[in-house]
Amino acid sequence: MRPLRGAVPLLLGLCLSACVPAPQAFDPAQIPSATDLGAKNAATEWWYVSGYLPDSGLAFHWAQFKVNFRGLPYHAGHLALTDLRGDQLSLSENSSQDVKFGAAPLRVQQGDWSLTEDAGGRYYLRAGPLDLDLTPLKAPVVHPPGYSGTAEVSRLYYQSVTRLAASGTVRVGGQARQASGVVWLDHQWGDQQAGRGVLWDWFGLHLSDGSDLMLYRVRRADGQIVQVLGSRVDPAGVAHAVTDLVMEPGRVWLSPSGRRYALDWQVRAPGLDLRLAAVRDEQELLTKTTSIAYWEGPVRGEGTLNGAAVSAEGMGEFVGGLLRRDEGGFVGGPGFPAAPENAP
After folding, report:
1. Assigned fold of 41-327
2. In a designed cystine with 298, which of 76, 279, 307, 340 is the match (CB 3.0 to 4.6 A)?
3. Quick one: pLDDT at residue 22?
4. Half-sphere exposure (Cβ direction) of 60: Cα atoms closer than 13 Å
5. Per-residue pLDDT tens over the stretch 146-188
């Protein structure tokens, strides 16, 4: 949809804004149910499905965003697909405002991209080259303490299905490749806007002992760390807070856009010592539909957990900040600051 122009569209836009309920304020005392993954009335909301599928030579990151912009909803989606055999990264973006949401079972649809759930709790991801069935191996969890962020940089409720078995096909270079492995599903919503005063470094990891590890380092735009958050979902599916967590960045990669991303990390906590490294450096995404630059790609590592050797595989995400105007960034400032061409 083109931006509204003229007196009549402007009045219509003002009327619609007045009729749309204000986004629900974040309340840290109202932690959501782990199983309620449906859409909320929030300033910012997203669903991610991320997967490193080494046996298939693939990694992918699908994201669906729902943002309340000046009282009206704006939707954006993107899919980053890495062909590890061909050493290629491709980015597809979805700007359709034709969306449908449902819950119990979950339905997230933007144009012809969709993440749906059946009555038995199985998910189906159909987005561009992805045609995947996702079977949960663990129940959904709310990561302790139930949200990420702080009052200073705003907060997001945080739910995940940390381990799902993926099967199906992925089209690579015009050919359908059989794909299988383990993936991670995230759902977050609240007051926070990426790039608007807040950046983060995140990992979603599957460990060889059957547990799953979420690591989250939240930074202000000036780089000051305001939160380091971790949780471990044990093999039985119970989420435990990882206390006294330290995430130390190591090797830094300079991207073609001139941004710097730490791609080697040392992670420590009581009973945990893990070294992590990017599988492939060239994973920067310049997402014009959200005006954000970040690195998203497969990582692997090794170390110890409670004295036993473990290996780790999964995905990392490091927010690099706002797109510049010459990169196609929105005019007007940080976050979702001004309506892009297809915004209401």
Report:
1. AttH-like fold (2.40.370)
2. 279
3. 81
4. 30
5. 999 999 999 999 999 999 999 999 999 999 999 999 999 999 9
Q: Which of 25, 313, 41 is nearest to 183 (CA)?
A: 313
Judge residue 269's burial from the number of C-beta atoms within 10 Å of its C-beta, 0-12 exposed, 13-18 middle, 19 or more buried: buried
- Predicted confidence at residue 195, as pLDDT, reads 63
- Token pair, residue 196, equals 């608007």
Residue 72 has pLDDT above 90, yes or no: no
Q: Is the dihedral of CA 323, 197, 274, 52 positive or negative?
A: negative
Helices marked H in the chain — which ranges?
7-19
Please list, in sequence order, all residues whose beta carbon lies within 8 angstroms of the beta carbon of residue 120, skipping any fewer than 6 positions away. Answer: none
323-333 pLDDT, tens per residue?
Answer: 999 999 975 43
Check residue 221 and give its pLDDT.
86
With H, G, I as helix, E, B as strand and everything else as coil, classify residue 286.
strand
What rounded mean pLDDT belongs to the chain? 90
Instruction: Enumerate the β-bridge partners of residue 321.
Output: 293
List the chain domain ranges: 41-327
Q: What is the structure's pLDDT at 194?
A: 67
Kind and range of the H or E element at 93?
strand 88-94
Distances (CA, A) of 67 to 14, 51, 158, 165: 18, 24, 16, 29
Least confident of 81-85, 212-216, 229-233, 339-343: 339-343
pLDDT interval class at 30 (50, 70, 90): very high
Structure tokens at 20: 């749309």
Task: Tokens for 294, please give them.
Answer: 């970040």
Q: Residues 336-341: contacts with CB within 8 Å, 24+ apart? A: 336/67, 336/69, 336/74, 336/193, 336/290, 336/291, 337/196, 337/291, 339/3, 339/69, 339/70, 339/74, 340/74, 340/95, 340/288, 340/289, 340/291, 341/2, 341/3
**Using the 8-state DSSP alphabet, how is residue 56 labeled?**
G
Residue (of 204, 196, 219) closest to 149 by Cα position = 219
What's the whole-model pTM score? 0.91
Sign of the alpha-carbon dihedral angle for 304, 308, 144, 48: positive
